Each structure stands twice: as C-alpha cells, then as structure tokens.
Amino acid sequence: MTRRERMLAAMRGQATDRIPWAPRMDLATIAWKAQDTVPARFAGMNTAEMADELGVACHAVRGDYTLQRQPQDLMLRGLGIDNHPDYPFRVEIRNLEVRFEHTAGHFQTVIHTDSGSVTMKLAMTQSMAASGISLPFVEKYPISSLNDLDAVAQVFEHLEVVPTPAAYQQFHERVGERGLAIPNGPLGATPMHAMLHDLMAMQDFFVYYVEERQALKELAQRMAPFYDAMLDALMACSAEVVFWGANYDHDTTWPPFFEEEILPGLRRVADRSHDAGKLLMTHTDGESRHLLDLFPRCGFDVGESVCPSPMTSCTLREFRQGFGPSTTVFGGIPCVVLIDAVTPQADFEAYMDELFSELGSGARVILGVSDNVPPEVNLDRLEQVKCWVDAFGPVVAPGA
Fold first, then answer.
1. Global pTM value
2. Domain limits of the chain?
3. What is 3-69+143-392's CATH number, 3.10.310.50, 3.90.1150.100, 3.40.50.410, 3.20.20.210?
4. CB 25 within 8 A of CB 50
5. Three-class SS of residue 340?
6. Which range among 78-92, 117-131, 216-230 shows the weakest confidence by mean pLDDT?
7. pLDDT digits (tens, 9 = 90+) for 226-268
8. How far apart are CA 45 and CA 41, in angstroms?
C-alpha cells in the first residue's frame, strides 16, 4: 500500500499492511528556519519531501505552513480567517473600505462599516517563529464591546468565499501518494465557536454568553451564510477527507456549551461530507475527558491531533473508547516523549511499548505527534517509532 492508501484505509476502518505513521513537521520546520538550525538532511525540502527523508507518511492537514505567504493572506486573520496557497478557497471582502498595514511583524486591519470601524491588530515576531508559531497573536480583537457586534456582522455579510479548486489540486499533487492532502475549513466549528476562538477575548466571551446570549446568537445568525459558503466550497473540491473545526477543551468549550453550540454544527458538516462521499476530520487536541461522550454524536470520522497523557488526563485507550468504533484516532504520541530533556530514552521506550500493547487490532489508528513535532525533537526517536510499527505488523479490519 502507498502511504496515502494506508491512511485512507485506516480512516475507513479497513485493513492495512501496517499502522500509518504521520508526524506533523511544519511547525518544527518553521522554528528551525527562524533559528537557522534546519538539519542538513532537510535542507531545501518541503514537508512532503521531509516525510520521504524520514520514511513516514506526510502530515498534510490544511496546508504546508512552511511555504512562503504574502502579508495580505493575514489581512482577515483577526476574524479567524487566513488565506493560503494550499486552501480550496480564498476569502475576500467586498464593498467595504479596508485599510491594511504591516511592518516589522505587526499587522493592522481597519474595516469601515455603517456602524463604525472594525479594527484588528496582530503580531508575528521572529521569536514567535523561532518557537514554531505559524499564525500571529492577537493584540486587538475585532470585538471589544457589545457596540462592535453590528459592525462585525456587517463585515461577515461582505465576505465572499472564492473557490480555488486548482490551488487545492496543486496541494494534492505535491503530496501525492506520500499522504493525504486534507483541505482547510474554519478553525471555529460554528459561528458561536468562532466568537470564542477568534473574535473576542475569552473572558469577554464568557461574560457575554451568560449576560448577552441573544445578542451573540443574532451575530451567529448573520455569520451563518459565510459558513455555508465555506462549506459549499469545501464540498466542491476533489478531496476524500476534509477538515472542519479545532481546539476543544472541556473547560473552555465546556460540555453544555459544546453540546448546544458546537455539536449540531459539526453534525451538519459531517452529514454534508458523507452525502458528498467525503470523510470529516476535526482537530480534537485539548483536555477533553468530559467531552468524550459527546464526540460520537458529532459524526466526524477522524479526530486529529489526539493528545493523551501525560499532556492530558486521558490515555490513548480512553480516547479510542470514547470516540467509539466508527471514529479514527489520528495522533497518540505526545510531543514531550520525543524530547531528551523531558523524557529519558528508557522512559520513551517504555511509553511506546505500553502504547503499542494497548492498540488491540490497531484498527482506526493513525499515529501522529500531538500537536506537532517540537523543534527540540530527538529525530532518532521519530525514526525509532517505525520499529514499533514494523513489529506490530498488519492491521485487521474490525469483524474480519
């Protein structure tokens, strides 16, 4: 099987010749480039070529963030929206006056509406890049008071989703049989989740959600057509698996909130994906013990960036049990076990022995590093994981 075939089969619950192993390399690469410490063996390579060098599958979720980007691609990032040459659509703003400035790692966007200006400020410094950060930090959110809600709603009503299937196709062809090129959807799984995730400071959201919930729901309704347009563009691309939604945590997206404000939206996207013959992946990193019983109701097919103990309270076995028999776990190796200064070699080997001893048949598992390979990784350990994969052998499909 090719690495692409192996990953797709695992996501479909089918037999494979071995467990797929796809560590995420882009954030480490960003840090190495910023520090001028790219390992010689990876010099001049994109992430697909690096996967070849390591003998692993290419982790190609949303896009290759080591590629050069134009500053304008971050013009709307304060709204939770960025553009990228690998994405299956671009987002443009129409019929509103926009002023965008960028200098020395600082970005400011001002959008004028009938209800006032929406101002967003971001920062992306060299020191952030040296830590492997791929998206800028927010210095000023678009919503800082309830007075900003109508203006932000107007901005969303003037956003246009421009499908770019050829851009995704280039991404797909660059990855080829090395892995699965999975096209980007929004990080906020629903408009309400986007408000928490991107549009305002978290503490403000919690207050408004309790005291001004109706006002937030009205904003969510006005954002919904934009979400529909993103979903339409995602469904129109040629991918077998699509990405939608990220970053769930049982404290910040607490269970009643998740059940009311995120679950129905993910379920809708899952149904649309399945009707289009596609699988749905969502980024499930975070402390999610008290969300595990809700995840199966969302209908997603792949929980990506699954991060077990010691970085969260759940073991990989508990994640797999919580996700249920129809959901594939993508992740499972916490990044800390790959760092010499954190985990001694003997403890790394013991951790991997235990992990593989609990995989059962190995069905519906794609091994990855949660959330990403750290820049201080011991690359020998990345390659040693293949020894456990080879020793485990073929994966038998459930019921076979």
1. 0.96
2. 3-69+143-392
3. 3.20.20.210
4. yes
5. coil
6. 117-131
7. 999 999 999 999 999 999 999 999 999 999 999 999 999 999 9
8. 9
